[in-house]
Structure formats: structure tokens, C-alpha cells
Amino acid sequence: MPLTRLKGLDLQTGFFTYRQIKAATNNFNAVNKIREGGFGSVYKGILSDGIVIAVKQLLSKSKQGSREFVNEIGMISSLQHPNLVRLYGCCIEGKQLLLVYEYMENNSLAHALFNNEEREQTLDWSARQKICVGIARGLVFLHEESTLKIVHRDIKTTNVLLDQDLNPKISDFGLAKLDEEENTHISTRIAGTIGYMAPEYALWGYLTYKADVYSFGDVALEIVAGKNNMKYRPNEKFVCLLDWATVLQKKGDLMELVDPKLGSEFSKEEVLRMIKVALLCTNPSPALRPTMTAVVSMLEGKTVVDEMARDPDIYGDEWRFEALRDQFGQSLQLNSVEGQSLVQSANPTWIGSSSTSAHDLYSTNLDSR
């Protein structure tokens, strides 16, 4: 990728040399590796001025090429919000493609929730409430307030990072890219992670902001339960945490979802509110899901949660979880790789502006939100 093309993007970001990055990460020492992602590794580093950074190293074998990489830089550099991970800069030298982010001291939300054996204490309820509201505010910014209106498409606990004060910041905008014709920020492939993808998007490629709302609902349930949506199955009758929560809602036993590690140190009112908001967000019908602005208002107790019944009729009887397991269980297992995103060939339908102008798609609020 010619540097002249990169500079021509008028990015609000800095440029680093490969030598600087190697020195900061001690030549990408394995000791400094924070995590392994679908597109490469992330390393902790320290710049010469003492600033601690996180370096996302995209491997040459990655499906994310130079054009997508440049687009990711362009988008992230223009987005600044307390609940979004900040991009410091980038490095492009030869086949080396690297992004330099702010370092998040407390790793990911997934690590905080699901790897408690490595932590001295579990997240208390006040921290969980703050994290949930913070994620919602970050999505409000992406969907409604930023210059570029973006559907993240891969909201999940591993893509929410926590700073030293446990403030949540949404990361990884690599899935919101230009397509092959470079006329929209929606790619021509369905991309996301099994267990967090909205059904209308996963099955038919029908993509709106409501796909992120659905994913957020899954994350909110995980925050309450302290359990991974895809890994938790109380018995053979249930496919995932969301399936179990749906049944508990019908039985009127929602408090059974609460993470036992919280003991009695939580607000029952806030817990029930978060669960009900999560179930509203994961309604099978995208039209019945709230906007993220409404979600923030409900989570903060400013508006009453609309406890409408979940209506799976839009998908017919086959969308019941039990039927989904029977019909698609084997293929889901084959296509799902733990900790990685699912990318499949498809032709998603973007429901929004009818214009093909990227500027219009970025700056226009979509009617279907």
C-alpha cells in the first residue's frame, strides 16, 4: 500500500515506523502478547516517551488486506468517544500492517467475567451496571452521533475492553469496511460471531443498526449472569444463555439468571431492569427492538422497560431454539471457531438510505434504526 495513498486519506492519526513498534514491544516478545484475534495478535508496548500502547499486528495471511486496513484506520481515527478505544496511529511498511491503540489495563470484558480464577475479585454489581451503560452509550455514538454512522457487527464481550477504572470501551471496527466497489461501509460478506449475531442477519443478510442492538442484548445477559452465552447450557433442553433466559422470563424466575458470585450485593431493581432490557434487545423481530438511545434511557431508569412478549412468528416455528439446534446444530459447530469471528459468503441487504454515495450512507440516519 503506497504511503502516498494512506496520507491522502487525511487521517487524524499518527504514523509509526516499524523500528519504533519493534522497540516498544521488545521485538514482539511473546511475553508482551495480550491476546490472539481473528486477524492477528495484539501486543503490549511502551513507547520511548513512556506511553503504554497496544499494537494490533495483522498477519500477511490475514483476510484483512491493505485496502481494508487503510479503511479501518480512516474510520477509527475519526471516532473519538469515552466508550470507544482510541487509535494513536498506524504503521505500514512492506507487508507489515499495524494499528497502535491506547492500552487497556483490565483486558477484555470476557476476561473479567469468564476468567475469574485469574482475578482476585469478581466484578461487583456497580461495575457491571457502569460497564453495561457505557457499552450502550458507545453504540449510541456509533449509530446516531458520530460523523460516520456505523454498524459494528461484532459486539461481544471480547470486543469490549476495560481501562484501569473499569470503564468499557468498544474495540475492533475491522468488520465495518468498504465493500469491493468502495461505495458503502458494509462489506459484501456476512461477518460476525456465532452466539451474538442477530437472526435476520445470520440467516438472510438483512443488516440494520438493530443487529448491534441484538448483540448488545446478549452481552447484557452475560454481564448479569457471568456466563458465556454460547458455553452455558444448564441442561440438554437449552442451546445457550439467551434460550434459558427466555424460558425463565415465561416462568417468572428471572432472578435465577444472576451470577452467584455476586451474592446478595446487588440492586434487584437494576438487575431485573437490565435483564428485561436485554430480552427486549434480543427480540427475534428487529422492528420490536429498541434503539440504543432508548436502551440507555431504560438502563438508567429514566423510562420504563416495555415488557412486550417475545414474538418469534416473523421466522416461523423453525426459529425456536430447539428447532434451530436440530436443523443447524451440526453446521453451526463446524463453522464456529472458539474466540474467532464467523465470516461467510453472502449478499447482505442494507436497509437504509437508497443512495449509493458513501457520504450519504455515513451521514444519514437510517429509517430502520
List the helices and strands and how they pair.
Elements: H1 3-7, E1 14-15, H2 18-24, E2 33-37, E3 40-46, E4 52-58, H3 66-77, E5 87-93, E6 96-102, H4 109-114, H5 125-145, E7 160-162, E8 168-170, E9 189-192, H6 199-204, E10 206-207, H7 210-225, H8 241-251, H9 268-281, H10 292-299, H11 321-335, E11 342-345, E12 349-350, H12 358-363
Parallel strand pairs: 1-5, 10-12
Antiparallel strand pairs: 2-3, 3-4, 4-6, 5-6, 7-8, 9-11
Helix pairs in contact: 5-7, 5-10, 7-9
CATH architecture of the largest domain: Orthogonal Bundle
Integer average pLDDT: 76
Order of strands, widest sheet = 1-5-6-4-3-2
- Figure out the total of helices: 12
Instruction: Output the radius of gyration.
Output: 20 Å
Large-scale geometry: globular
CATH superfamily of the largest domain: Transferase(Phosphotransferase) domain 1
Proportion of helical residues: 25-40%
Give a description of the structure.
- The protein has 369 residues and is an alpha+beta fold.
- The chain folds into 2 domains: 3-102, Phosphorylase Kinase, domain 1 (2-Layer Sandwich); 109-363, Transferase(Phosphotransferase), domain 1.
- Helices cover 34% and strands 14% of the residues.
- It contains 12 helices and 12 strands.
- The strands form 4 sheets. A 6-stranded mixed sheet has the order 1-5-6-4-3-2, with helices on both faces. Strands 7-8 form a two-stranded antiparallel sheet. The chain has a two-stranded antiparallel ribbon with strand order 9-11.
- A hairpin with a 5-residue loop joins strand 7 and strand 8.
- Helix 5 (125-145) runs antiparallel to helix 10 (292-299) and helix 7 packs antiparallel against helix 9 (268-281).
- The longest helix has 21 residues, at 125-145.
- It is globular.
- The chain starts with a helix and ends in a 6-residue tail after the last helix.
- Residues 1-11, 174-188 and 312-369 have low confidence and may be disordered.
